[in-house]
Design goal:
The chain is mainly alpha-helical and 495 residues long. It has one domain. The protein is 76% helix and 2% strand. It has a two-stranded antiparallel sheet. The two termini are 17 Å apart.
Length: 495
C-alpha cells in the first residue's frame, strides 16, 4: 500500500499536464479529468479501509527516512477526508460538465481543477508542516484562477480580496514555520509531537495559538472570516461548491491535526477555541439571515457551520472530536449539494435573488425536493445527517459540562432553520416570478440532465450518511481516539 499512497497527489498533477496538451479538445479534457478523479476516489477509499483496519499507511518519498525526506501518511482522519473529498470532486466535475459557463468556455478549467484537487489531497496526506504550506499554495494558485474565470469585474475584485487575505495567512504560516524550526529543529509533524513536549508550556501554547490564527484564516473562523462571503458568491456555482465544501475544511483539518498532535492537555487552548467557535456560529448565522441572495446566504452559513466543527475540537474529548469529524463528513456533502442546487435554480429561473424568482418548486418540483432535503439536513432536523452530527456534538458538550456552548449551538441551529425557511419561502415557494423560458435558451436538455444527476447523487449521499450514522460515528470515534493518543502515528512515521 505504501507505493499507492502518493497517487492521490500524483495522478491529478499528471492529469493536469495531459489536460494542457489537450487544450483545444474539451471532450478529451473531460475524459482525462473524470478518469483521474475517479481513480483517485477508488484509491482514497482503499486507503481509508487500510488505515482503519491495519493502522496508518506511511510512505517516505525518495527513500529518505523521516525527518529528512518528505513523509506522506494516511491515518483514519486523512483517509476520511480523502475519501469524502475525492467523491465530491468527481460529483462537482460532472455537474460542471453539464452547466454552461467556466468549464465549456475556458480550456484552463480542467488543468486548474486538477491542480486544486492535487493540493487538497496533498494537504491531507502530508506529514510535515512545510509541505502543508506547499499544498496550501497549490490550492491558493488554483483557486485564484478558478475564481476569476470569465474575467468579470466582480470576480476580479473578489479574487483579489481572496488572494490578499490568503497571502497574509501564507506569510504568517512561513513565520510560524521559522519559529517552530528554530525552537525544535524540525518541521516533521511526528517529530514535532515529540520535541514540542520538551518545550515549556507557554512556548507550546504560543505555537498552538499562532497556528490557530494561520489556519483560522483558511477555515474562516471569527474574526478572520470576512473574505469568504465576498469571494465565494461571485464564482460559477461548481467552483463555489468546491470552495464551500472543501477549502475551508482543509483549514479545519489542519487545525484539528496540529492542535491534537502538538499540544497536550496542559497546553491546549480549549476555552479560547470554544469561545471562538461560539462567536463564529452566531455571527455566521446572523449574517445569513441578513442576506437576500441565495449564494450569499449559503456563504454565511459556511462560517456558522465551521463553528460547530471547531466546537467539537474545543472540547478536546473523544466524543467531541468524533462529533466534529462526523459533522465535517455531513457538511462537505450537504453544503456542496446546496450550492449546486442554487446554481441549478439560477440556471432554471434566471436569477439567484430571492425577490426575483419565487415559486421554483412549483415550476420545477424535482428541483424543490433536491433543495429541501439538504436544507433540512443543514438545519439539523431529524432524521437527516445534520441532526445526527449535531446531536453527537450536543451530547459531547453536555458530557463535558459546556452548557453555554451547547445552548448557543442549539439556538444557532434554530436560526439556521429560519434562514433556510427564508430561502424556501422566497425562492422555492409562493407565486413564480419567472417563466420556464427564463432559463438560458441555449442550454441543452442533456446538460440539465447531467446537472440533475450530479445533484441527485450528492443528495443520496447525504441520506446515506444518515442511514449509516452508527458505523460512521464508530469510525469517527476510533479516529478521535487515534488523534488524542498519537503514539502510533509518531511510531509509524519515525520507525
Amino acid at each position: 500500500m505504501n507505493a499507492v499512497l502518493p497517487l492521490p497527489v500524483v495522478l491529478p498533477l499528471l492529469g493536469a499536464a495531459l489536460s494542457i496538451t489537450a487544450f483545444k479538445s474539451r471532450r478529451t479534457q473531460r475524459l482525462i479529468s473524470l478518469a483521474v478523479l475517479s481513480a483517485t476516489s477508488v484509491i482514497s477509499v482503499v486507503l481509508l479501509i487500510q488505515a482503519d483496519r491495519f493502522g496508518p499507511v506511511v510512505a517516505q518519498m525518495g527513500g529518505w527516512p523521516a525527518p529528512f525526506g518528505i513523509t506522506l501518511i494516511a491515518d483514519r482522519l486523512a483517509g476520511i477526508m480523502l475519501a469524502v473529498a475525492s467523491v465530491m470532486l468527481v460529483s462537482v466535475l460532472v455537474y460542471a460538465i453539464g452547466q454552461p459557463g467556466a468549464e465549456r468556455n475556458h480550456g484552463a478549467f480542467h488543468p486548474v481543477y486538477l491542480v486544486l484537487s492535487a493540493g487538497v489531497m496533498a494537504a491531507f496526506l502530508t506529514g510535515d508542516l512545510f509541505n502543508l504550506f506547499v499544498a496550501f499554495e497549490m490550492m491558493l494558485t488554483a483557486s485564484y484562477v478558478l475564481l476569476t474565470l470569465g474575467g468579470g469585474r466582480e470576480q476580479i475584485r473578489s479574487g483579489m480580496t481572496y488572494v490578499v487575505i490568503s497571502l497574509v495567512a501564507s506569510a504568517l504560516f512561513l513565520t510560524s514555520l521559522a519559529l517552530i524550526y528554530a525552537a525544535t529543529g524540525t518541521v516533521n509533524m511526528a517529530q514535532l509531537a515529540v520535541r514540542m513536549a520538551e518545550l515549556p508550556d507557554g512556548v507550546r501554547l504560543a505555537f498552538g495559538l499562532l497556528l490557530l490564527v494561520v489556519f483560522g484564516i483558511k477555515a474562516a473562523l471569527f474574526p478572520l472570516f470576512s473574505w469568504l462571503p465576498d469571494s465565494y458568491p461571485t464564482a460559477p456555482s461548481p467552483i463555489t461548491a468546491v470552495f464551500a465544501g472543501l477549502l475551508t475544511k482543509v483549514g479545519v483539518y489542519a487545525i484539528i491535526r496540529t492542535q491534537t498532535l502538538f499540544l497536550d492537555s496542559s497546553s491546549r487552548p480549549g476555552t479560547l477555541i470554544l469561545v471562538v467557535a461560539s462567536i463564529t456560529m452566531v455571527v455566521g448565522v446572523l449574517g445569513a439571515i441578513a442576506q437576500d441572495d441565495i449564494p450569499r446566504i449559503l456563504s454565511f452559513h459556511i462560517v456558522s457551520q465551521i463553528g460547530y466543527m471547531i466546537m467539537g475540537l474545543g472540547l478536546f474529548t473523544v466524543a467531541g472530536l468524533a462529533g466534529a469529524i462526523l459533522y465535517i463528513i455531513h457538511h462537505i456533502i450537504v453544503k456542496t449539494t446546496l450550492f449546486l442546487v442554487a446554481g441549478l435554480a439560477e440556471v432554471r429561473a434566471g436569477s439567484g435573488r430571492l425577490a426575483a424568482i419565487g415559486g421554483v418548486a412549483r415550476v420545477y418540483p424535482v428541483l424543490g425536493v433536491l433543495f429541501l432535503l439538504p436544507a433540512i439536513s443543514l438545519a439539523g432536523l431529524p432524521p437527516f445527517s445534520g441532526f445526527v452530527a449535531k446531536f453527537a456534538l450536543v451530547e459531547a458538550g453536555l458530557s463535558a459540562g459546556q452548557y453555554v456552548v451547547v445552548a448557543i449551538s442549539i439556538l444557532v441551529s434554530l436560526l439556521t432553520l429560519f434562514s433556510m425557511t427564508k430561502i424556501w419561502g422566497g425562492a422555492f415557494w409562493g407565486e413564480p416570478q419567472f417563466t420556464e423560458d427564463a432559463a438560458d435558451p441555449t442550454e441543452p436538455p442533456k446538460g440539465l440532465r447531467v446537472m440533475y444527476l450530479s445533484v441527485g447523487f450528492l443528495v443520496a449521499m447525504s441520506l446515506a450518511v444518515a442511514l449509516a450514522a452508527g458505523p460512521l460515528y464508530n469510525l469517527s470515534h476510533r479516529t478521535a481516539n487515534e488523534l488524542l493518543h498519537p503514539d502510533r502515528y509518531v511510531a509509524e512515521v519515525l520507525g
